[in-house]
């Protein structure tokens, strides 16, 4: 690899970065990086330092904007999807991308009534089954020719439903779990069997599940490792050469994408599977000293960068919709606090959103389920009364489910009243 990285200034590595640079290639490594510690910059320094000795290298970035920035700096950067698409398209020539492949299959297999009642749950469950590399034992699939990351067992589907809190109840309290699983199995099997069209999930899954030929890399580097899922980790194993050097950088405390299927133990799993030695990256270049001292209650190893200002941190004993302005970011350790505040903001007609939770979409899905149930029962009473009754039933069921799981945060969020 002969790329050079343009830079207008000489960056002096910190003691942590120096240790990573000095020990690269001696063993596989995983870097535990605190927030604002320059994870991508460290990878850039690493590739720059080893330029000329990385003959076949690949840096996998979390998303396309990050990959584009890194490529513009001269790094051999790709996304999982970009690399996977090349591998899949080479083996299945003539295949075309269809981002709506799963949704299209779902609409073909489900009636409009079923779509309103169960469509969101089925789509969610199929999406999560992709992340664990699940291969169902189905007549549409030649399972002997597929390399499953997760083999289908009776409890696998139920575990996915519980892990991601997928709502499988009708507005009237009927348990639709078996029907939702049955639809999901059929849809997943059909999508995996169809190699003529590729969804974004197929781009990563097919190279692994179909064991497609792939020229491995001598140097494989992974950014944001804490947000990888099981199928991505299996993809990494396939992408790394037999004697290749592996480096992963991430932060266990910044795993934000569990709702997308990221493994909660992704970094520890990677550390075990690739036999990595762990290195710290503990200097935060983002925050002033007062914020770092507060953060040390939860992340003791985090350090303020030399020369950072003291900064100001205010304590707000009371706050509400009028406290915040457009563009503000609110961080909370408890989802219940965010949900309650979000409802208040929406009631005040202030646009807002919660990362990992489609509140508007969730409300629409719930309303569609209630509407489908109303039409199916040919109810004649006032629609508002039926809506209130259905919402109360839904609330009571969610609270009972949360009590069983001892999920106090969800109980608080579900029982919130304006």
In a few lines, what is going on in this structure?
Helices cover 45% and strands 11% of the residues.
Describe the structure.
The chain is flat and about 75 Å long. The protein has 16 helices and twelve strands. The protein is 45% helix and 11% strand. By secondary structure, it is of the alpha/beta class. It has helices at residues 15-23, 39-49, 64-72, 80-91, 101-109, 112-131, 156-163, 177-193, 200-209, 230-239, 266-273, 289-295, 335-347, 359-376, 383-404, 408-414; strands at residues 29-33, 57-61, 77-79, 96-97, 134-135, 150-151, 197-198, 217-222, 240-250, 277-281, 283-284, 303-304. Strand 2 (57-61), helix 3 (64-72) and strand 3 form a beta-alpha-beta unit. Helix 5 (101-109) packs across helix 8 and helix 15 runs antiparallel to helix 16. The termini are far apart.
Query: How big a fraction of the residues is strand?
Result: 5-15%
- As laid out across the biggest beta sheet, the strand order is 3-2-8-9-1-10
Estimated helix fraction: 40-55%
The radius of gyration over CA amounts to: 24 Å
How far apart are the first and last residues' alpha carbons, in Å? 60 Å
| Helix and strand composition category | alpha/beta
Largest sheet: 6 strands, parallel
**Which H/E pattern describes the elements?**
HEHEHEHEHHEEHHEHEHEHEEHEHHHH
Helical segment count: 16
* Poorly predicted runs: 1-8
Mean pLDDT figure: 86
Q: Quick one: how many beta strands?
A: 12
């Amino acid at each position: 690899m002969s790329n050079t990285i343009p830079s207008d200034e000489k960056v002096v590595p910190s003691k942590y970065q120096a240790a990573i640079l000095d020990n690269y290639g001696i063993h596989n490594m995983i870097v535990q990086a605190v927030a604002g510690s320059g994870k991508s910059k460290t990878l850039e320094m690493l590739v720059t330092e080893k330029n000329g000795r990385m003959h076949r290298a690949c840096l996998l970035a979390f998303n396309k904007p990050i990959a584009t920035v890194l490529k513009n700096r001269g790094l051999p950067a790709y996304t999982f999807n970009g690399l996977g698409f090349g591998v899949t398209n080479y083996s299945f020539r003539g295949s075309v991308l269809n981002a709506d492949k799963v949704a299209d299959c779902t609409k073909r297999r489900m009636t409009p009534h079923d779509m309103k009642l169960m469509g969101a749950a089925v789509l969610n469950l199929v999406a999560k089954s992709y992340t664990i590399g699940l291969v169902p034992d189905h007549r549409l699939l030649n399972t002997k020719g597929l390399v499953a990351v997760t083999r289908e067992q009776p409890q696998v589907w139920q575990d996915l439903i519980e892990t991601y809190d997928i709502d499988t109840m009708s507005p009237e309290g009927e348990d639709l779990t078996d029907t939702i699983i049955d639809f999901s199995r059929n849809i997943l099997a059909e999508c995996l069997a169809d190699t003529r069209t590729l969804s974004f999930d197929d781009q990563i899954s097919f190279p692994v599940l179909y064991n497609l030929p792939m020229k491995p890399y001598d140097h494989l580097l992974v950014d944001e490792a804490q947000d990888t899922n099981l199928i991505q980790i299996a993809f990494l194993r396939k992408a790394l050469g037999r004697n290749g050097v592996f480096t992963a950088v991430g932060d266990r405390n910044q795993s934000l994408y569990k709702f997308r299927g990221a493994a909660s133990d992704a970094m520890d799993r990677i550390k075990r599977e690739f036999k990595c030695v762990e290195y710290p990256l503990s200097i935060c270049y983002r925050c002033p000293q007062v914020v770092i001292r507060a953060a040390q209650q939860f992340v003791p190893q985090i350090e303020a960068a030399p020369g950072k200002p003291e900064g100001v941190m205010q304590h707000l004993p009371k706050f509400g919709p009028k406290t915040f302005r457009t563009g503000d970011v609110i961080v909370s350790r408890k989802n219940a606090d965010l949900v309650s505040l979000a409802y208040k903001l929406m009631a005040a007609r202030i646009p807002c959103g919660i990362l990992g939770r489609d509140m508007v979409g969730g409300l629409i899905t719930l309303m569609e389920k209630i509407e489908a149930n109303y039409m199916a029962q040919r109810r004649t009473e006032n629609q508002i009364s039926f809506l209130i009754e259905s919402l109360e039933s839904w609330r009571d069921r969610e609270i009972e489910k949360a009590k069983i799981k001892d999920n106090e945060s969800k109980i608080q969020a579900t029982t919130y009243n304006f």
